[in-house]
Each structure stands twice: as structure tokens, then as C-alpha cells.
Amino acid sequence: MIKSKILTTKNIKDLTAINEKENKRIVLSHGVFDLVHPGHIKHLELAKKEGDLLVVAIVPDRFVNKGPGRPIFNEQIRAEMIAALQFVDFVVVAKQEMPIDLINQLKPTVFAVGDETLEEWVDDPNYRNIEQALHSVGGRIHQTGSKQFSSTHLLNAYFDVLTPQANEFIEYFCSLYDAEKVNDSLRRLKDLKVLVIGDAIIDEYHFCRPYGMASKSANIAAQFLSAEVHAGGSMAVANHLAGFCDTVDLVTSLGDQDSREDFIRKALQPNVKPHFFLRTDGPTTVKRRYVQRFLMSKLFEVSFYNDTFIDGEPLDRMNEFLSSHLSKYDLVVVADFGHGLLGSTTINILGEKAKFLALNTQNNSINNGYNLVTRYARADYVCIDEQETRLAGRERFGPIEEIEAQISAQLGCKIMTTTLGYRGSLTLIPPASFIQTPVFSREVVDTTGAGDAYFALTAACACMGYPPELIGFIGNVTGALAVRIVGNKQPVAPLDLFRYVETLMR
Fold first, then answer.
1. Domain 183-199+234-277+307-504, CATH 3.40.50.300 — does that match?
2. Is 68 exposed, middle or buried, given 0-12, 13-18 or 19+ CB atoms closer than 10 A?
3. pTM, 2 dp
4. Strands, E assignment, 146-271
5. Residue 330: closest CA among 222, 196, 441
């Protein structure tokens, strides 16, 4: 009985045909319904009174952005829970985040929405698409007024989706801020004029099915499945910032041997204005990763690059551009991956002319031990990981707080963050005001690119002079969203971040 109420694509067509003959009034409701509670039941009961048939669309798992560990129940279980309600006639797992296709197919008389859902959709541009779709089929929005419970609040309170340390920090943080104040601080970033400078990296993911070692040689045999190409490095940093800042310029170098410029221009967000300086002695850096898809395990990586420092005419033109234009930016974000873009003369210009200099230097397999933050004489904000902090401080085992304070003093930082992996992040306001922020997610799809997202958003927040607990919270919320994205496939979206903040702080 329950499963017979769950519609397939064919059932929807049959239902549409029958209703066109019988002229039934369809009421469509839509939601996650991760933990069915009295508020949901009241909402759906009121919705049914607006028509003859109540159809409930379930948000599919891949579009649930409600926070760590969500959804608790998968889409099939959620569909069966709703179908078990007597006054629900049909349930369908939607194909999209917003049920535009269902509105066009079912032509509902009423689209029923609860108060809480309507509040969540205020900032979502897709909500306007729902209004337009309803108008085109002669339907209307009906607000049920059912704002009695929050499944997010109940799940946060009674399901252990966060660590005890994270729950304790959030309780403390909520005594200082509310969700609206945090999200307002993110919205205020839009007026910053930002320049991002750093290495351009093309990230290729080649997904494989490994079969094991070949019988006649010591190599792994694998079947190629599919491939994805992402704009990484400084381009990913620029894309993350572009969602929050209206003006984002990008300075980077491409190689004339395989520039990938057409792909890069299409991959950048519309409000990112690139300034490319072409080097003639190599390709644009490409990192090709071979990945076992099911667990996202990286099997092998091949890189194409020339990591010697650019020189000659490309360097002269880039330095001339920086010298002439740096003063017009509120924030200069340096994403230094150590692949040959940022030599000593460029570093000196950045240190002398940037109003607010945010710096991230990455230690990786290509530049291991050579690309340290101490190559720079000055930075207003530094964000690096623990290994990079220890290498720069030449201290393998000492307290990370002491090393961070030493580097911060050496560079004259106003604020510095060391990311600590599964232990979160440590933010310092010199000389000795530390705050450690725990991680806010246990679900990790891919860590590649998560540090870039963290750095991008915290750099903008540091430029605005936000306090360390706010910077740490925003950074770790951003990171928790970023580790659910494969590489740099897409930037962290503002709406997802706003929702995540609201979820954690309920």
C-alpha cells in the first residue's frame, strides 16, 4: 500500500492524464522531511484541505544542504515515511532541488509551503522560477502557517552528527552571535575590491575501476570510467570569492605550449576578471589524478608543468601591472602554490603596495620544503596548514601556538590561521590571543580544494577586521561544505553557506 503511493516517471504521466480528464485539484508540497514531526503532519494536513489530491515531492539526497551528516534518512526511506500518512495521496522523489519539472508536469492548483520553508527560500533565486512555473500552469502558492517545530533543531539536539567539541563550541559561539548576524557579516563582503594572484592549476580527475596487479608485471590494471576537469589553484580561490565579493580580478600565468585558456575563461565565475601573462617555456600547470571512484581514493598523479620562475617580458609586464594597479584593491589575496609565478621581485611589489595582503603558501610534492611563507617579508593575514607552519618555523614537535606566534611576529600579521585537519583550525590575533575552532562535518568526499575555500572566505573576513571566533567559525563552515565537493568542481555557494550557518546555530 505504502510503496504503491510512491510515483515513478511512468506513474506521473498516468496521473497527469487521468487528472486532465477528471479535472482534479492537485496540491503539491515539497521538502526534505528528514525527521517527520508534528509540524510536518500539520502542514501536510492543512495542505490537503486545499485540493482533491496531495502530492508530496521529496528533495533528493544530493541536494540536501542541511548540515553535517544530513540527510539522516535516505530519499527512499523519507518517501516511505511520508507515504505512510493517510492524507497523503502520492509521493515522488524529485529530480531537482526545486520541483520546477513537477509543477510543469502535474499542473497543481496549489503549491503548499510552510513558514519555515518560505523563510529559507527568501534568498534563493530559484524561488522566482517556482512562482513563474506556477503562474504558467494557473497555480498559486498557499502558505500553511505551520511553524511549530524544526526538524533541523530536533536532529541537532538528539542525533549525534557533530563531535562533542563541535557542539560545545557552537553553544559558546551562539552566546555571542545569531545566524542572521553571521550571514550579514558574509553579505557585507560584497563591496570589497579584491585581487587574487597565484598559480593557475588545471585539476583533472580520471575515474577508474582498479582490478589489481597485472599477472605478468608489477603494475595496477584499471578500467577508465570517466573524467572531469576543474579550474584549480588561484582560479578556484577567485571563484570562491566571486560568490561573495562583486569585484574580483585575477592575475596569473598560463603556458603557451598548452594554455587551456578557452576552458579557463569558461570555468571562471562571470564577475572574475582575468589578467593572463603568457610564459613561453612551458604549459599551463595540469595535475592529472587517477581516482578510484567509489571511495575517492587517489591511485596516482601525473603533473605537467614548468616550476622555474617566470622571467623576461611576461614577468616585466606582470610586475608593471601590479605596480600600477595594486592601490585600487581593498584586498590582495596571494595563492602561492610554488609553481613558478611568484618570484622575489613580485613578492617585494606585493609587500610594498598591497593595502591588505592575505597570504597562503602551499607545500606540496612538487616544491616540498622550498615554498615557505617566510619567503615573504610582510603579510596582514596568513593562512597555512600545520605542516607548513612547522616547516616555516623550523620546529617539528613544539607547541603549534608558539610557532604560529613566532611566524606572525616575523611577518607583522594582524591575524594568522593554522588549519589542523581533523582538529579544526587555530586562529591567532597577535600577540597571544588564540581561538581553536573544531571541524563541523564528519562527511568527507574529497579534501582537495577545501583549504582554498577556507582561505578565500577567511581572507575576506580578516580584511573586514572580523574577530577570530567569527573568522574561525566561517572558515570551518566553509571547509565542511568544501570537503563534500569533488576537487574544485564548483565553488562554495553563498546560499548553501547561509543555510549551513542557520542549521548549525539552531
1. no
2. buried
3. 0.75
4. 193-198, 200-213, 220-233, 247-255
5. 196
